[in-house]
Amino acid sequence: MTEELYLPAGEYQRTFDAEVVAADEAGPSVVLDRTLFYKEGGGQPPDHGTLSWDDGEARVVDVRKDHGEIRHELDGDVPEAGTTVRGDLDWERRHAHMRYHTAQHVVSKVVLDEYGASTAGNQVYPDHARIDFEPADFDEADLRAIEEHANDLIVRDLPVRKENRSRSALEDETPEGRTNLDLIPESVDPLRAVSIGDIDVCPCGGTHVDSLAELGELEVTDRTSKGANVDRIEFVLHDPATAD
């Protein structure tokens, strides 16, 4: 089984060394004994980057879990099993996903607290994110209120803590409607928990920033109905260096 080096709190590491344990030239892809590359899941796309070794290099263009293995799909040479490789993350892409995934947690918590609506689905990208809420029927005033409440939390620069917690502790602390803990197999214990200050905690395997100051200003850009009692909110983050 591949060791996921970014868990529970190694998101800021950008390079690593690993050994190829399986190679598929037809894929082309490799399985490593350890990795920093995030595999697609939980509404978050995979990391990209490069693998290099003594006599070759390839771009990592996709990372997925396949029959229990974390498979790195490559564009370029394929190293043989037993080869030691160096992995380098596309840091700009990784950090963008970290910012938007943490912002998704902020917005989801705000909407749960203010409107009693749970997150029914979400997807983050390098330049925007969307969240589906249920039950929900937002108007323009609601969108501006959600935006304001989220930015009020962001300017407080709350710390974001990532750690492994016992399942029973998380079940006690996670508010009803915040996450679907029942969808996580009972055998998964402990769980990786993401906490934002003292306002939010929920299980999550995605990558996150260490503090809300990294998010910058949040702007809600759109709302669409996705069916009875389901509304989708889309938002963007402005660079902290240029936010007013």
TrEMBL record:
Chief location bin: cytoplasm
GO cellular component terms, semicolon-separated: cytoplasm
PROSITE patterns (alphabetical): AA_TRNA_LIGASE_II_ALA
Sorted UniProt keywords: Aminoacyl-tRNA synthetase, Ligase, Metal-binding, Zinc
Entry keyword Nuclease: no
Domain of life where this protein originates: Archaea
Coiled coil: none
Subcellular locations according to the entry: Cytoplasm
GO MF annotations, alphabetized: alanine-tRNA ligase activity; aminoacyl-tRNA deacylase activity; ATP binding; metal ion binding; nucleic acid binding
Cofactor(s) needed: Zn(2+)
GO BP annotation list: alanyl-tRNA aminoacylation
Domain Alanyl-transfer RNA synthetases family profile intervals: 1-244
PANTHER family named in the record: ALANYL-TRNA EDITING PROTEIN, ALANYL-TRNA EDITING PROTEIN AARSD1
Protein name per its UniProtKB record: Threonyl/alanyl tRNA synthetase SAD
